[in-house]
Amino acid sequence: MKKLALLIIITAFLLGACGQPAAEKNNKLMVSTASSLTGVMEKAAAEFGKAEPGTELVFNYGSSSKLRSQMEQGAPVDLFLSASESDMKALSDTDLIEKDSVVPFAKNRLVLASADGLAGSANFEELLKTTDETIAVGEPESVPLGRYTKEALDSLGLWEALDGKLIYAKDARQVLTYVESGNAELGIVYSSDAVMSEKIAGIAEFPEDIQPVVYPGGIAADSKNREAAEAFLNFLAGPDGQKLFKEFGFIPASGDES
Predict the structure, then answer these.
(1) β-pair type (166-169, 251-252)
(2) Which residue has the higher pLDDT, 62 or 123?
(3) What is the DSSP annotation of 91-151?
(4) CA distance linking residue 61 with residue 63, whole number of Å
(5) Exposed e or buried b per residue across 114-138, where buried means at least 16 C-beta atoms within 10 angstroms of its C-beta
(6) 179: three-class secondary structure by DSSP
(7) How many CB atoms lie under 10 A from the CB of residue 29?
(8) pLDDT-based confidence at residue 206 (cuts at 50, 70, 90)
(9) Is 256 exposed, middle or buried (0-12, 13-18, 19+ CB in 10 A)?
(10) For residues 59 and 62, what is the distance between their CA atoms, to the nearest angstrom?
(11) How far is CA 209 from each of CA 87, 110, 150, 189, rounded to the nearest angstrom?
(12) Rounded distance between C-alpha atoms, residue 82 and residue 45, angstroms
């Protein structure tokens, strides 16, 4: 009788163990995501969920440089969506990102933004040369937006001229928050952030010869959910994802802005 009872217990345990993977089919996809993608990712997750209802997307937002550092320190990541080609390259060069998986999925531009509107001609260079206002920018040493801003202003001979007028932010979202809240009268932000913000009243475009910002995505070499990572990246780079990016003020990866 004892042997029979033991056999029943063992059988039940084995059946339970066998059934566990099916119960855990609700996969988690860990996505490290540039903070400037926050709004569009919420919509993308909902749309992707209709096609892949068994996949739960878990986003970790931050500056691309900070996210790269987290991966280098062993943070669990399946997919990296970066606002910086250099941060993506650093990870693929050290085999933390699968080189063959890297694909650009969106582009962006820099703009000068204000919550109170822009006086005068709204000419970008003229505004920066004549303003006495505080200007919010990303930290150039650790934030892609800050690095792009410094490169662009250096090319126009304006970076050193603005010394003393700049306040620095930890990521793209904080730059926008400084402007929206009035903690800075002006801010250099991504076009997508300015377009989607209900508090930004004035926008001046950077000169056209300043190249757009490219957003690459790549799958982590040690991803625990590679199939779902590939599916979501393909969705973002595909027609449905490109439509979403355009809706949120980004430039499609193809560069077609029409």
Answers:
(1) unpaired
(2) 62
(3) HHHTTSB-GGG-EEEEEE-EEEEESS---TT--HHHHHHH--S-EEEE-TTT-HHHHHHHH
(4) 7
(5) bbeebeeeeebeebbeebeebbbbb
(6) helix
(7) 24
(8) confident
(9) exposed
(10) 10
(11) 23, 12, 15, 17
(12) 17
Which amino acid, one-letter code, is at 196? M
The per-residue pLDDT for range 102-141, each reduced to its tens digit, is: 999 999 999 999 998 886 656 788 888 888 899 999 999 9
**0.70 exceeded by pTM:** yes
Cα 133 from Cα 15, distance rounded (Å): 69
Give yes or no for a contact between 118 and 203, defined as CB atoms under 8 angstroms apart.
yes
Nearest to 236 by CA among 23, 10, 52, 2: 52
- Angle formed by the axes of helices 85-93 and 64-72, nearest 10°: 10
CA distance linking residue 250 with residue 229, whole number of Å: 22
Q: Which two tokens stand for residue 88?
A: 């993506």
Angle between helices 38-51 and 239-247 (to 10 degrees): 150
Q: Give the pair of three-digit tokens for residue 250.
A: 């980004």
In whole angstroms, what is the distance from residue 234 CA to residue 216 CA? Answer: 12
Evaluate whether 141 touches 112 at the Cβ level (below 8 Å). Answer: no
